[in-house]
Amino acid sequence: MNRSFKIYVYPHKRNDPFANVLLPVDSVPSGNYASESYFKKVLMKSHFITNDSTKADLFFLPFSIARLRHDPRVGVGGIQDFIRDYIFNISQKYPYWNRTGGADHFYVACHSIGRSAMDKANEVKFNSIQVVCSSSYYQSGYIAHKDACLPQIWPRQGDPPNLASSKRKKLAFFAGEINSPVRQNLIQVWRNDTEIFAHFGRLKTPYADELLGSKFCLHVKGFEVNTARIADSLYYGCVPVSIANYYDLPFGDILNWKHFSIIVATLDIPLLKEILKGISSEEYLMLRSNVLKVRKHFQWHFPAVDYDAFYMVMYELWLRRSSVKVS
């Protein structure tokens, strides 16, 4: 992949009226949906880019859903029309889209609205590769073998302090808004427990300290199946527990999640303590050792570092490329 994989990006200039949407950000990406901006920023400076379309394995649709949301000319209500018009324009100006109906094209989006943004561009939804954070195969717009999960990562650099010496006295920890029946059930069952700390609202202690002090950290489905909590857990050396049915986990084609995480069905929330306490000390040490091995795959860097999140997403795309190039 590193030697031969090539991406063609539809070209746009800085004087384009929507350059803010189509070009990489100049600043360092930050915030909850930074994965979308980080990927494009790193890709555009990488050796994977080609200006020769005949050498391209895939074609990148460079629009930013996150930036379209905040552009007053478009906004949430206008994103579907923007995407429809964008696809029409490139299909008229270039031959690449029409050759495959978009099957060798891809886009990247981290905000959940990215999925519904394709409702007026069905060829994108059903033909193109959708690299999205909201990767629920319960939703009709996401096709697991075609599409790929973009990990939602709150950007951090380097390793956290005192990770090796952190004392994990709590069995499990969760903090977040109650924005789904799954989280509501979790809080109702475990909010007063002395070993599973389930919080909603603002924490009184630093979030990082809670992650460093817990053996297991809970990723619980909210409005969507994805949150940044899995990457948070891995970064702070805490074994993630995913409670989100139908979640096509990040890099599921590459990583064996059973080796470094626990997956619990939402119906089993009342059994959560029994499940976690049923894990032997030897099993837990193996899980935590593997957490420290895989967390490098859930960090962004500019420029990219081997095996980081960028290279993992690129490998997912490489697996989905066509073995036959269209002339």
TrEMBL record:
Annotated family: Belongs to the glycosyltransferase 47 family.
Membrane topology: Single-pass type II membrane protein
Domain Exostosin GT47, residue spans: 2-277
Matches recorded under Pfam families: Exostosin_GT47 (PF03016)
Keyword terms of this UniProt record: Glycosyltransferase, Golgi apparatus, Signal-anchor, Transferase, Transmembrane
Subcellular location: Golgi apparatus membrane
Gene Ontology CC terms, in alphabetical order: Golgi membrane
Main location: Golgi
Protein name as catalogued: Exostosin GT47 domain-containing protein
Coiled coil: none
MF terms (GO), sorted A to Z: glycosyltransferase activity
Family matches, as InterPro entries: Exostosin (IPR004263), Exostosin_GT47 (IPR040911)
